[in-house]
Amino acid sequence: MDWQTSEDTVPSAPVTEADARLLLGRPPVTGAWRDGDPVGARQFAAFGAFRTESGRELPGIRLAFETWGELAPSRDNAVLILHALTGDSHVTGEAGPGHPTDGWWDDIVGPGKPVDTDRWFVIAPNMLGGCQGSTGPASIAPDGYEWASRFPYLTVRDQVAAQVRLADALGIDSWATVIGGSMGGMHALEWAVSHPERVERMAVLSAPPVTTADQVALNSVQLEAIRIDPRFQGGEYYDAGDGDGPHRGLALARRMALLNYRSPTELNQRFQRSWQSGVSPLGHGGRFAVESYLDFHGNKFTRRFDANSYLTLVEAMNSHDIGRDRGGVESALERVTARALVLGIDSDRLFPVDGQHRIARGLRHNIDGDRAVELVSDFGHDGFLIETGPVGHHLTRLLAAA
User: Fold this and answer.
1) CB 4 within 8 A of CB 87
2) Count of CB atoms within 10 A of residue 44's CB?
């Protein structure tokens, strides 16, 4: 549930006038990738009817994905990387047509890097319900209109079921490693529990075994921020013009979320009580720098994401409970046969590290015994994206595990 773009995962910094000028134009009604937009490095896999856990059926689905490296003739070197809430398939690579930003994990994935694409064949899909090429609310339904509010409720298990179809289509019977952070970590855990025979290694980074009541509560206010925007129109906003979509509600939801992704230490150290300009915020119309920072990133987000997808994916996160209908968390974790790395951030206030320790205690083959790796970082939840040195070191340990 993190920023997942290169410029957003650098340490927080005050907003400059040049930054602000980037957002002077009217935001699009949706930041979703649409058919007809530049494809970039995306590939697509289409599938037939898909029935969700709730009993709804999509007549067909499509997953967008990217790959790096080459699949070995034995098909034993495939690595699945699963993105977080607002991420996409562009894990590594330069910005360009179809990809407005550089890859979000460039320091981790590539030739000679911790996930070495000279050795591993890496696949990263955009999750079902997303807005960067996979079927989601902004996609066109059979009647020629966007799915919009008609798009079905999805669970994490539904999204993994779609990824299973992708693996089957690519002829990958078993993943050498499944790696996921935040929401992607929920997916990685679900893969290892529901399909243990297909996962040899697993990395769960900054993800919990279950979305708690506290986390559902934090999510609920973000969802309501979008729904109460008059321009949301119950999800039926795609025919509106630029500037007339639910960008204010989506930006507000993003601002709320950002407060959970970083730590108080980082925000206090970087911004202190500084002003955005020479105009005092103490009754004279000025703003504190941290306020402008949140506004900037909230508004920027509306240019690359879709409000309906945000609702769909956050609700899927709320569904996450690895122990649901499996006798509880510990019983579910007993199913996992993969060698595992579980990693958390000591300052993570979104998914506190005690959740990662609980996962580690329940796994038979965690490479660190009954404890998760606990990184010390001022960057909070987003530390798994920013602290690429230590994260890469621990991924290297996992990939070397027999």
Assistant:
1) yes
2) 13
Secondary structure element (H or E) that encloses residue 221, with its range: helix 213-227
Three-state DSSP state, 315 = helix
Structure tokens at 111: 């030739």
Instruction: Give catalytic status of residue 321 as yes or no.
Output: no
Q: What token pair was written down for 133?
A: 């090429």
174 belongs to the catalytic site: no
Catalytic residue among 8, 348, 378, 382: 348
Report d(CA 65, CA 128) in Å as an integer: 11
CA distance 116 to 396: 9
| 182 classed as catalytic | yes
Residue 304 in tokens: 């690359």
Q: How many CB atoms lie within 10 A of CB 54?
A: 12
Both tokens of 271, joined, read: 């911004």
Residue type, 181: G
Q: Would you state the pLDDT for residue 6? A: 39
State how far the alpha carbon of 131 is from the alpha carbons of 12, 126, 150, in Å: 26, 8, 15
Q: What is the pLDDT of residue 4?
A: 40
Quickly tell me which residue has 């013009």 as its tokens: 241
Q: How far apart are CA 189 and CA 50, in angstroms?
A: 22
Structure tokens at 124: 């990263």
Q: What is the mean pLDDT of each run of 10 residues along the chain (402 residues)?
A: 43 54 74 95 98 98 98 97 96 91 94 98 98 98 97 98 98 98 98 98 98 95 96 98 94 86 71 71 75 74 94 98 98 98 96 97 98 94 94 98 84
Question: Residue 7's pLDDT is what?
Answer: 44
| Residue among 12, 89, 139, 182 flagged as catalytic | 182
Instruction: Residue 109: count other Cβ atoms within 10 Å of its Cβ.
Output: 26
Pairing relationship of beta strands 121-125 and 109-110 according to DSSP bridges: unpaired
Among the listed residues 99, 187, 320, 381, the single catalytic one is 381
Q: How many CB atoms lie within 10 A of CB 266?
A: 19
Burial of 56 (0-12, 13-18, 19+ CB in 10 A): middle
